Amino acid sequence: MVTEGLGRIEDALKAMPSGRDQVTLDLSAVEGLDTGGAWVLLSLTERLELDGASVALTGATNDQLALIETVRRNRPEAPEDEAVQRGLLPFLERMGERTVGGVQSMLSLLEFLGLTLHRLAMTAIRPWRLRGTSLVAQIEEVGFKAIPIVALMGFLIGVVLAFQGAAQLRQFGAEVFVVDLIAISVLRELGIMLTAIIVAGRSGSAFTAAIGSMKIREELDAMRTLGLDPIEVLVLPRVLALVIALPILGFVANLSGLFGGALMSWIELGISPGMFITRFGEGTDVWHLGVGMIKAPFFAVIIGVVACWQATLVGGSSESVGQRTTIAVVQSIFLVIATDAIFSIFFSELGI
Fold first, then answer.
1. Among 22, 27, 129, 193, which residue carries the largest CB count within 10 Å?
2. Could you tell me the CA-to-CA distances from 317 to 71, 212, 223 in Å, in that order?
3. pTM
4. Which residues of the chain, if any, have pLDDT below 70?
5. In this structure, which CATH number among 3.40.462.20, 3.30.750.24, 1.10.238.10, 3.40.630.30 belongs to the domain 3-74?
6. Distance between CA atoms of residues 2 and 8, nearest Å
7. Is the dihedral of CA 132, 137, 142, 144 positive or negative?
8. For position 240, what pLDDT does the model report?
């Protein structure tokens, strides 16, 4: 009874009628028995015993009996379906467990952020330890290669703002203020925030998948064995690359958004490019651009640290890589939006 014939044997055994009090399985004619065959015999025995029959094995050699017993001992136990408990106390218990888990995750993230900042400080003291080749490669990957998608996103955002703003402002005869709407929205908020969201989905997920796969292959342990610090070798170049590239990508998104808004304003409202530029210069302060650029390094640190932190939590399977990648993207986007809200309140209190 070898693996190649298990399918036919299993189908034949499933057709065996049940309802008998005594069943004898004669193995005297079995020439070969492997673990698959032993599994089939045990499954048949369990099914017959559940039907109330008494099963006996005859004609088996000592080796076959030992193999069957080994498979029996190592069979996984069927998982028991735990019924969800109802009521106030079980609900509070589940909420408490989730709260504790959230606090532990936050502390773990802060610990990883502290390690990253410590390595950054040590690198600032000893700059020759920074791996320039890795840094340049990461800047190319997260910055230069992301320019097309970021520019397209910014252009479309400008087009949408101009089109929707024109539809609303036309009712009040204030079409010219669509320039202020586009300029302030793109420069202060949408340009850099949407760029950060795209980078989180594009580059943050790549960071988690790459480092997580290295952890599965035990490459991180090999680095430590060689005296290399994974945070210094893998995390720091990625975070610094984001800090350098994200403000540039945000500036590209701003230019594309203004271009798209100007183009749609010309088509939809008849505002010429010259008039758009004039109104833009009169109604836009340099701080509108400054506010967006100040946020960029903070968004970059959030994306890089969260992505690399989730990579260190990857388990021992490829499925875990996918789960942690998804979690990294969701957490990065959430923290970016939350940080943007905090900055908005802060600058509003300052009157900027």
1. 193
2. 25, 10, 20
3. 0.73
4. 1-21, 51-52, 76-84
5. 3.30.750.24
6. 11
7. positive
8. 93
